[in-house]
Amino acid sequence: LMTSYISAWIWSERFWFPENVTWADLERPPPGVEYPRLGHLMYAFPLAVGVFLLRLLFERLVAKPCAHILQIQAGVPRRAQPNDVLERVYQSKTSPDTRQLDGLSKQLDWDVRKLQRWFRIRRNQDRPSTQIKFCESMWRFTFYSGIFVYAMRHLWVSPWMWDVRECWHNYPFQAISSGQYNYYVAELAFYWSLMFSQFIDIKRKDFVIMLVHHLATIMLITFSYTNNMIRAGTLVMVVHDASDIFLEAAKLANYAKYQRLCDGLFVVFSISFFISRLVIYPFWIVYTVLIDSWEIIGPYRAWWLLNGLLLVLQTLHIIWFYLIARIAIKAIFKGKVRDYGSPKRPCIHTFYFLRFPKITR
């Protein structure tokens, strides 16, 4: 009984669709027309495994040789002296506080400075090498570039690309094209592959943040596909992919020690981020989902949820751009993008832009 109640609540037509629209309506499309169904996204799971394996091959056969050509070495970090007591402490807390260090000093009869040095070496031991970060950024740069070109190829001839009100005409009875489906499944598979790789890759400081980010992205992609908000969904995804291309390019230049190119690309990234996420996203995409859809189809429960999530995302864009602008201004006036991830200057997740490949969208 409880299972039936939960299932009925999750799949409530009053939640997912405007008034007088049912799941049955979407299950019986006209001949030659296909509407989105949740089952279509099941193909993203095996594809995600394929994307992950493709990434491993790409990094080994393409990215690593490029790193060697650019003389980016893997590097062998200095290893900390084996110590079972300190290793147990490190696994629970990588940077012990003063009280813990004092206790360890008494327990092991070690000087506090020696303990601090041990933990510093141990942290460095877990940090990915520049070559690893270069390979990961090159994979992301390749994926974002390819998926952006693919998306623009199909969106360029789509009427809702030029008139966003077309996103809502005859909603939700809008046929899905093969291009839209492929784009959605590719993006979903990519983020599922990132979920897999997070548990296999070297664990980074932003592990939890990125885990939440990937889960939220997967939920939004699945949500918009399920209730056929695909037209607006494709616009949201392509806007976000656009600036990420320049970000990954800037990181590649940074790892290769092409500082001027890095600074220039970072400024280009900052400009593209501003245009795509603080101009196009709020004044075209959020506007049509919030205002145009209200006028054409009217609000319903899922409509409130979607708009709430899009507005939260816009708030994050504003915060991120403020932080990006600070780095870009330093690059323009001081001639170098600084490493805000240095141990002497603790940073929040958004400042990982150039030095750390795990980057929030």
Automatic annotation (TrEMBL):
Its main location: endoplasmic reticulum. Pathway: Lipid metabolism; sphingolipid metabolism; Sphingolipid metabolism. The keyword Ion transport does not apply. Residues 132-333 form the TLC domain. Keywords: DNA-binding, Endoplasmic reticulum, Homeobox, Lipid biosynthesis, Lipid metabolism, Membrane, Nucleus, Transferase, Transmembrane, Transmembrane helix. Residues 86-129 form the Homeobox domain. Residues 88-130 bind DNA. CDD domains: homeodomain. GO terms for cellular component: endoplasmic reticulum membrane; nucleus. It catalyses: sphinganine + octadecanoyl-CoA = N-(octadecanoyl)-sphinganine + CoA + H(+). It holds the Pfam family Homeodomain. Gene3D superfamilies: Homeodomain-like (1.10.10.60). It is found in: Endoplasmic reticulum membrane; Nucleus. InterPro entries: HD, Homeodomain-like_sf, Lag1/Lac1-like, TLC-dom. GO terms for biological process: ceramide biosynthetic process. Sequence-specific transcription factor which is part of a developmental regulatory system that provides cells with specific positional identities on the anterior-posterior axis. PANTHER family: CERAMIDE SYNTHASE 5, LONGEVITY ASSURANCE FACTOR 1 LAG1. This is Ceramide synthase 5.
